[in-house]
C-alpha cells in the first residue's frame, strides 16, 4: 500500500472499528459516566497529534452512528440542535455536512479553543448515548473518506494548552 490516502483510510477504518467495539462494551456493561470519561481521555492521550487531526472527529462520527439508532432515555429530555444536526448528517451519509458541523461545534465559552470545543461536543454525545435507549435497525456505516484536518484553526497547538 503506497498511496498515503489509502493507508490513512485503512488506518482510520481500524480506529473506527476499535471505537465501535469499545462503545458496544461500555453500553453492554452499563458503564457509569466516570468509565466513559476515562475511556475518552485514554483515547485522546493515546492519539497524540492525530486526536485533533482526525481521531476526535472519527470518535464523534462513531458516536453519531450509535446515536442514529437510539432515542432519548426520557421522552421529554431537552434537545441539542447541534447534536441532532450532526447525527442527522451521519445518518444520511453527508460527509461534508458532518465535517462542517464538527468544525463549528458550539460551546458556551466564545473564546474556547478547539480542544475545549471538541471535548464539550464529545462529552455531550457520550452523555446522550449513555442515557439513551437503543432502537431497532442497522446503524450507519463508518466514515469512509480519509480525514486529516490541516486547517491551523482546527488543529491543536501547544499554545492551546496554555490558554
Q: Which short descriptors sum up this protein?
A:
163 residues; two-stranded antiparallel sheet; 7 helices
What is the topological layout?
Elements: H1 4-28, H2 33-47, H3 50-67, E1 70-72, H4 81-92, H5 95-103, H6 114-130, E2 132-134, H7 158-162
Antiparallel strand pairs: 1-2
Helix pairs in contact: 1-3, 2-3, 2-6, 3-4, 3-6, 4-5
Structural notes for this entry:
The protein has one domain (4-143). 25% of the residues are buried. Helix content is 62%, strand content 4%. The protein has helices at residues 4-28, 33-47, 50-67, 81-92, 95-103, 114-130, 158-162, and strands at 70-72, 132-134. It has 163 residues and is mainly α.
Helix content: 55-70%
Mean pLDDT: 87
Number of helices: 7
Largest sheet geometry: 2 strands, antiparallel
Instruction: Please give the radius of gyration in angstroms.
Output: 15 Å
How many strand elements?
A: 2
Task: Tell me, briefly, the overall form.
Answer: globular
Number of domains: 1
Quick rundown:
This protein has seven helices and two strands; from the N terminus they run H-H-H-E-H-H-H-E-H. The protein is mainly α and 163 residues long. It is globular, with a radius of gyration of 15 Å.
